[in-house]
Design goal:
Keywords: Phosphoprotein. This is Response regulator. The structure is a single chain. By secondary structure, this protein is an alpha/beta fold. The chain has two domains: 120 residues, Rossmann fold (3-Layer(aba) Sandwich); 93 residues. The strands form two sheets. A five-stranded parallel beta sheet has the order 2-1-3-6-7, with helices on both faces. Helix 7 packs antiparallel against helix 8 and helix 9 runs antiparallel to helix 10. The longest helix is centred in the last third of the chain and has 17 residues.
Length: 255
């Protein structure tokens, strides 16, 4: 196999207190556009360049083409668990300097660290200060050398664009309408659970819990009631998302 020459993005300038991640490239492997938009805004505010892959196959295409400084991997992806990608990169030539795992389920952190991740963060990640500190803490000493000693990270909370939320809800609504099987329901529960946390939507989170309970025993039969309840709620959210942030309404309690 011929040797693949990896490209490195040019470093435009040195880090500054206002942009402590200046010159770094971050590859985000995340299927949710809503969650990705929050990370994009954080990278923009921090001086980093963000590239996104929405599945494992796309992530490998990125990694074979260029070398990001940091890799952030969602653990629930449409074509497999993110831990597989992390484990495949351990001690290999394609491994970025920083490998982080992210998930809406805090209990998946130990598996990510065991697979070889440098750190784990639970969704939603919306604090700019937390994001900057997370990357800087795990950078090799040589790359941290150019960062100012006292980095006054801004403790701002980043709110992603609702247009990205609409795209995620549309995707979920289409999948729910196709009578998904057990594994697909498990994926949707993870996908929508992350959206519910990022959007601070407890009603959607409760509907997702109903699907999660059902999925645990899907081999013994799948009922339609929890699925229909979740599908109705997603359609209502989709109809309302253009009007403003998600929130509970009277219909949420009789879904």
């Amino acid at each position: 196999m011929p040797e693949v020459k990896l490209e490195r993005s040019p470093i435009p300038s040195a880090p500054t207190p206002e942009r402590p991640l200046q010159g770094l490239t971050v590859l985000l492997v995340e299927d949710s556009r809503f969650a990705s938009e929050a990370l994009r805004l954080m990278c923009l505010r921090s001086g980093a360049r963000l590239r996104r892959a929405d599945c494992l196959a796309a992530a490998w295409r990125h990694l074979r083409t260029y070398r990001p400084d940091a890799l952030i991997v969602d653990l629930g992806l449409p074509d497999g668990p993110g831990t597989g990608l992390i484990a495949s990169l351990v001690d290999g030539p394609l491994r970025p300097a920083v490998v982080l795992a992210i998930s809406g389920e805090a209990g998946r952190g130990p598996a990510a660290l065991e697979a070889g991740a440098d750190g784990f963060v639970e969704k939603p990640l919306q604090s700019l200060a937390a994001f900057q500190s997370l990357i800087l803490r795990h950078l090799p000493e040589g790359q941290r050398a150019g960062v100012p000693v006292a980095v006054p990270v801004t403790d701002a909370m980043i709110e992603p664009d609702p247009i990205a939320l609409r795209d995620d809800l549309q995707f979920a609504a289409e999948m729910l309408a196709q009578e998904p099987d057990g594994p697909t329901r498990a994926y949707l529960a993870n996908f929508l659970g992350g959206i519910a946390r990022t959007a601070h939507d407890p009603a959607l989170a409760r509907a997702v819990e109903g699907i999660e309970e059902q999925v645990r025993g899907y081999d013994s039969g799948l009922g339609v009631e929890p699925l229909e309840r979740l599908s109705r709620l997603v359609r209502r959210r989709l109809n309302r998302v253009a009007k403003g942030p998600l929130g509970a309404d009277a219909a949420d309690h009789v879904a």
